[in-house]
Amino acid sequence: MSSSTVIDGKTKIFLEISVPSNEVEWILLWILQVFFALTMAAIGISQSSTFAPDSSKAKVAAASIFAIIDRKSKIDSSDETGTVLENVKGDIELRHLSFTYPARPGIQIFRDLCLTIRAGKVKQIFGPNPNFLLRNFFTQVF
């Protein structure tokens, strides 16, 4: 059912809709659901935008890590050339050793280190990666 009225020289049409009460309740619930969904989406978008600087830092850090992983080592562990000593016996002694990596000269790795390893004995060196540390130390020295 509709009715029309002329107001200010313009015809206005009014629709009269008779909706059962259960449909009105359904429409109100639907409107509330849409409102809350839009509100939650807006909150989620605004909160996720706060992580944008962190994600760009993470990309830079990941690129740096992959650059280190992809870097070709100066030591080729599969290279069979060179002198291979059949029988080596003796002590290893390091006296007053100081060491920094060339890439980070401001960070001292060893400062006045004295280390003696007797023949036939085992020493353990602990750290984030002692194998990497010693391998790179000997690469720089020899």
Which structural traits does this protein have?
alpha+beta, 42% helix, two-stranded antiparallel ribbon, 142 residues, 4 strands
Question: How would you explain this protein's 3D organization?
Answer:
The protein is of the alpha+beta class. The chain has a domain at 89-123. It is 42% helix and 25% strand. It is built from 3 helices and 4 strands. The chain has helices at 21-48, 52-70, 130-141, and strands spanning 2-7, 10-15, 92-101, 104-117. Strands 1-2 form a two-stranded antiparallel ribbon. A hairpin with a 2-residue loop joins strand 1 and strand 2 (10-15). The model has no long low-confidence stretch (mean pLDDT 76).
Q: How many strands appear in the DSSP assignment?
A: 4
The secondary-structure element order is EEHHEEH
* Global shape: rod-shaped
Query: What share of residues is helical?
Result: 40-55%
Mean pLDDT score, rounded?
76
In what order do the strands lie side by side in the largest sheet?
A: 1-2
Please render the helix and strand layout as text.
Layout: E1 2-7, E2 10-15, H1 21-48, H2 52-70, E3 92-101, E4 104-117, H3 130-141
Antiparallel strand pairs: 1-2, 3-4
Short description:
The protein has 142 residues and is α+β, with helices and mostly antiparallel strands. It is built from three helices and four strands, in the order ββααββα. The strands form two sheets. The chain has a two-stranded antiparallel ribbon with strand order 1-2.
